[in-house]
């Protein structure tokens, strides 16, 4: 009886170590996603660089979340110097490059057409790497494999399920990040509209009070006339 309990404890410990290995396996590797929010001054152009390898795919999404007009220019230039994408005075955009080249892609945001207003821009770069598939992970799983007499779980099934959960969570995080950028832009528009409504409401109220005071003064002047009229 004691021997069976010890064997069960050993199996539980081995299974826990296996799950921990799975988590570490899914967490290794460089982060392929980049998110950044920056302030683009008036009359300037800012460029950022993203390194890629051949035959990957790259997705670029940007949004202007604050600033007059909510628009910027955008250009995506390949490592060989070709202008792949060129947007002029847009508030948002989504672009895909498939396949990519070896080298640094240049992402340029242009606000040179605006001489007074600075813009706040959010952009996200997602790299879908073909080399980060299940090949390297399968090798690591092979190293971490246990004899079937100890652990009765299939490593392939665990790999597929946890890898699917990981990518679903990663995609959910990307969607939530984009929604936060939309929320920030909508909040800026609401605050700007509230300021305009408040300003014009106060101006109209001031005009109405001025007109009312003028009318009262004019009426009082008519009744305060002390000149005698001969009859």
Automatic annotation (TrEMBL):
<dbReference type="Pfam" id="PF01105">
    <property type="entry name" value="EMP24_GP25L"/>
</dbReference>
<dbReference type="InterPro" id="IPR009038">
    <property type="entry name" value="GOLD_dom"/>
</dbReference>
<comment type="similarity">
    <text>Belongs to the EMP24/GP25L family.</text>
</comment>
<keyword id="KW-0732">Signal</keyword>
<feature type="domain" description="GOLD">
    <location>
        <begin position="45"/>
        <end position="127"/>
    </location>
</feature>
<dbReference type="GO" id="GO:0005794">
    <property type="term" value="C:Golgi apparatus"/>
</dbReference>
<keyword id="KW-0472">Membrane</keyword>
<keyword id="KW-0256">Endoplasmic reticulum</keyword>
<keyword id="KW-1133">Transmembrane helix</keyword>
<keyword id="KW-0812">Transmembrane</keyword>
<dbReference type="GO" id="GO:0033116">
    <property type="term" value="C:endoplasmic reticulum-Golgi intermediate compartment membrane"/>
</dbReference>
<dbReference type="GO" id="GO:0005789">
    <property type="term" value="C:endoplasmic reticulum membrane"/>
</dbReference>
<protein>
    <submittedName>
        <fullName>Transmembrane p24 trafficking protein 1a</fullName>
    </submittedName>
</protein>
<feature type="signal peptide">
    <location>
        <begin position="1"/>
        <end position="27"/>
    </location>
</feature>
<dbReference type="InterPro" id="IPR015720">
    <property type="entry name" value="Emp24-like"/>
</dbReference>
<dbReference type="InterPro" id="IPR036598">
    <property type="entry name" value="GOLD_dom_sf"/>
</dbReference>
């Amino acid at each position: 009886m004691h021997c069976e309990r010890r064997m069960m404890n050993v199996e539980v410990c081995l299974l826990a170590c296996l799950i921990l290995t799975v988590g570490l396996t899914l967490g290794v590797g460089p982060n392929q996603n980049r998110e950044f929010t920056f302030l683009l001054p008036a009359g300037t152009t800012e460029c950022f660089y993203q390194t890629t390898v051949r035959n990957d795919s790259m997705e670029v999404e940007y949004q202007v979340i604050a600033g007059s007009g909510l628009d910027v220019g955008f250009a995506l230039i390949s490592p060989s110097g070709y202008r792949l994408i060129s947007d002029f005075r847009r508030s948002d955009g989504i672009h895909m490059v498939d396949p990519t080249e070896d080298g640094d892609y240049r992402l340029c945001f242009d606000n040179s057409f605006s001489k007074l207003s600075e813009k706040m821009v959010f952009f996200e770069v997602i790299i879908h790497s073909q080399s980060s598939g299940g090949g390297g992970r399968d090798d690591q799983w092979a190293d971490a494999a246990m004899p079937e007499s100890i652990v009765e779980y299939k490593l392939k099934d665990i790999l597929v399920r946890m890898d699917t959960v990981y990518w679903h969570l990663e995609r959910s995080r990307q969607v939530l990040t984009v929604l936060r950028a939309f929320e920030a832009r909508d909040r800026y528009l609401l605050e700007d509209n509230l300021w305009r409504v408040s300003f014009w409401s106060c101006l109209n109220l001031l005009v109405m009070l001025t007109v009312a005071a003028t009318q009262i003064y004019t009426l009082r002047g008519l009744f305060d006339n002390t000149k005698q009229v001969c009859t």
